[in-house]
UniProtKB/TrEMBL annotation:
It comes from Comamonas squillarum. This is Uncharacterized protein. It comes from the Bacteria.
């Protein structure tokens, strides 16, 4: 599997993560950056929501990060599939994606956010079981099931991690449009990220 350092990671991420959720939950847990799962309270998510943001990028819970990166943003898989299939089949696949991973899926996840971002919810909850089954159906229907050597730790492109700040880079990997970031802004982002992970088990 591509890592965040690869330029093509953003294009392949959802495709890889849909395959990732099909391995055993205990195996997934071993890949996460944060090892101790602390459930996310609804306020932490909803306080960050506005016209420009549909999730809280400062939440460090890996189950939340996985849901956001794979399912809330499932549209990100379509440029890859357009290149692979094109034409009418592309429109069919996009319709299938929209039907499987519609707003109702996200609504149910966020309505019971604390449970769905808990270890018990991840291993046994109805929401994650449904997401795994929908991923399997989608990938199987279009012959997209694949075996990956998943990175450890697993990091998601929408989120930042402490080791992303080991060296100042004016054009970091999270600058998808190629924009540069000032040292001052970089230091501010670093402080926010370090504070978020201060008490985490990584």
């Amino acid at each position: 599997m591509l890592s965040l350092s690869d330029k093509a990671f953003y294009q392949y991420e959802v495709y890889c993560l849909m395959n990732f959720v099909l391995i055993k939950p205990e195996s997934q847990l071993a890949h996460f950056y944060v090892k101790r799962i602390m459930p996310v309270c609804a306020e932490s998510h909803f306080q960050a929501i506005d016209l420009d943001h549909d999730f809280n990028s400062n939440i460090i819970n890996p189950l939340y990060q996985l849901f956001i990166s794979c399912f809330l943003n499932s549209l990100k898989i379509m440029p890859l599939l357009e290149g692979l299939f094109g034409g009418d089949i592309y429109r069919e696949i996009n319709n299938e994606r929209e039907n499987l991973f519609d707003d109702e899926v996200s609504n149910r996840f966020f309505e019971n956010l604390e449970f769905n971002t808990s270890l018990n919810g991840f291993e046994n909850g109805e929401c994650w079981q449904e997401l795994r089954e929908k991923s399997r159906l989608f990938l199987t229907k279009y012959s997209l099931l694949d075996n990956f050597d998943f990175p450890n730790p697993m990091k998601f492109s929408e989120f930042l991690y402490p080791d992303d700040f080991e060296k100042y880079d004016p054009a970091p990997r999270w600058s998808w449009c190629g924009q540069s970031i000032s040292l001052e802004d970089w230091a501010q982002m670093k402080n926010i990220t370090m504070a978020a992970y201060k008490d985490a088990v990584i």
